[in-house]
């Protein structure tokens, strides 16, 4: 394989994660209120569909990763495009909440299974193994722009055309990008020696001590990330900021995520990758302790800068570091398994955090637990195989 990804795959995979995250990951939240107002459906039903879909995204990532290893990526993208269209059409035309939930879960599961980072980064690791660090970093820069671009776009389309048209358009857009990727990856073959069963591959990941710690890190990191992103704005409002100002600071944190990603190729050439992962975890975990004091500008800005850099860098390092623990023939499966572990943590974290807030009446214990989890995560980071599979 070449050491460079090429412009076609760089742009197609970049636009894929941009549109996938922008529509069904971020954009869905914009549509919840318009859907509830027009239909009268319970918002809990709509948000539950989102949570269930994220869990299925993790399962779908494992299945898609294994299928890609065994059959090549093209059939995976074709099937996902069909499922995305079918699910989006069902959700956009649904007249009953149960029909909507089922269709929306199908759509987001298909979008997330192949449109979020796991599959894109598995393809990058196979096509350009020698340049994967820079290529993965570049790909996550597209993902970082998903929220700033698609949140206002989804809001505008829902306002002018209605949520049904907005949802249908989002599905068509993502399916078209999947079809584009499917055309470009037609020459990427299955991996020789990947004929083992899915169960056997997952069993190996659980038995292997390093991979087991890596999956545990995925669960803890997923819980940390979901709780931090969910609680930032409410915690700042509790500290005395207005909702508008707290939301603006959340957007600024997103801007600093780019600052965390851009220097990574340079840093990884000079600093051990394990050290970089550990620093990233501390950068976005420990600043949670600043949120109760974010009524003061110094604390608020310190949180925005530190957490933004940490979240941005760690989001990239998840894939960069994970591929160091697997051979090319199983990279899709292992990245998918990590995505599943992350999804489990993302589902558990907010649930436990919500229960804690209900019991205590304050978010402070959750923020303290978040900082403590950062320390736990640092301990969990496994040593990379020796010699490292890719010194880049």
What is shown here, in short?
With about 400 residues, the chain is mainly alpha-helical.
Summary keywords:
392 residues, mainly alpha, disordered C terminus, 2 domains, Growth Hormone, Chain: A
Secondary structure blueprint with pairings:
Blueprint: H1 7-39, H2 43-71, H3 73-93, H4 97-115, H5 117-127, H6 132-144, H7 146-161, H8 163-184, H9 198-207, H10 209-238, H11 243-261, H12 264-268, H13 273-285, H14 297-322, H15 331-360, H16 364-380
Helix pairs in contact: 1-2, 1-4, 1-6, 1-7, 1-8, 2-3, 2-4, 2-15, 3-4, 3-8, 4-5, 4-8, 5-6, 5-15, 6-11, 6-14, 7-8, 10-11, 10-14, 10-15, 10-16, 11-14, 13-14, 13-16
Folded structure, characterized:
This protein is mainly alpha-helical and 392 residues long. It folds into 2 domains: 7-184, Up-down Bundle (Growth Hormone, Chain: A); 198-380, Growth Hormone, Chain: A. Helix content is 80%, strand content 0%. Helix 10 packs antiparallel against helix 11 (243-261). The chain is globular and about 55 Å long.
State the order of secondary-structure elements, H for helix, E for strand: HHHHHHHHHHHHHHHH
CATH superfamily of the largest domain: MFS general substrate transporter like domains
Low-confidence regions:
388-392
By CATH, the topology of the largest domain is Growth Hormone, Chain: A
CATH top level label of the largest domain = Mainly Alpha
Distance between the termini: 16 Å
SS class: mainly alpha
**Could you tell me the strand content as a percent range?**
under 5%
Shape from CA axes?
globular
- How many strand elements? 0
- Biggest β-sheet: count, sense, barrel? none
How much is the radius of gyration in Å?
Answer: 20 Å
Helix content: over 70%
Q: What would you say the CATH architecture of the largest domain is?
A: Up-down Bundle
Q: Give the total of domains.
A: 2
Number of helices: 16
Mean pLDDT, as a whole number? Answer: 84
